[in-house]
Write a structure and sequence with these properties.
The protein has about 120 residues and is α/β, with parallel strands linked by helices. The protein is built from 4 helices and 7 strands.
């Protein structure tokens, strides 16, 4: 069985590395990292099973990436220090995890998006 591929769009390097480690362990996944909207758009041209999106990254907001993921029916979760109210109305039904996040709650949320996540 092929490994899952999870895209993490996060411009804070330490947070990205921590998320990558959590996702690799919980999902036994290959992690693709992006610090920018432009790079994230390139990476979703490859097969991706799930994405974790910070709302604000160095060169903008990830809403365009979110809309592309939605069009491709790829599940995604916003993980952000921004409040949900800052997300456009058409994306507010997306799962949202506020930063700072709790690892256990993050894994619980991933379980809801992809049911066979391990602890």
């Amino acid at each position: 069985m092929a490994k899952r591929r999870v895209l993490i769009v996060e411009d804070e390097v330490l947070i990205a590395l921590e998320l990558g480690a959590i996702v690799q362990k919980a999902l036994d996944a290959e992690v693709l990292m992006s610090r920018s909207v432009a790079r994230a758009k390139q990476l979703i041209d490859q097969p991706v099973d799930l994405a974790l999106l910070d709302v604000d990254v160095t060169n903008g907001k990830t809403f365009e990436v979110a809309m592309l993921l939605r069009l491709r029916q790829i599940p995604f979760v916003f993980l952000s220090g921004s409040r949900r109210e800052h997300i456009p109305e058409q994306l507010r039904d997306t799962p949202f995890i506020p930063k700072p996040y709790d690892e256990r709650k993050l894994i619980e949320r991933l379980r809801k998006v992809i049911p066979d996540v391990r602890e």
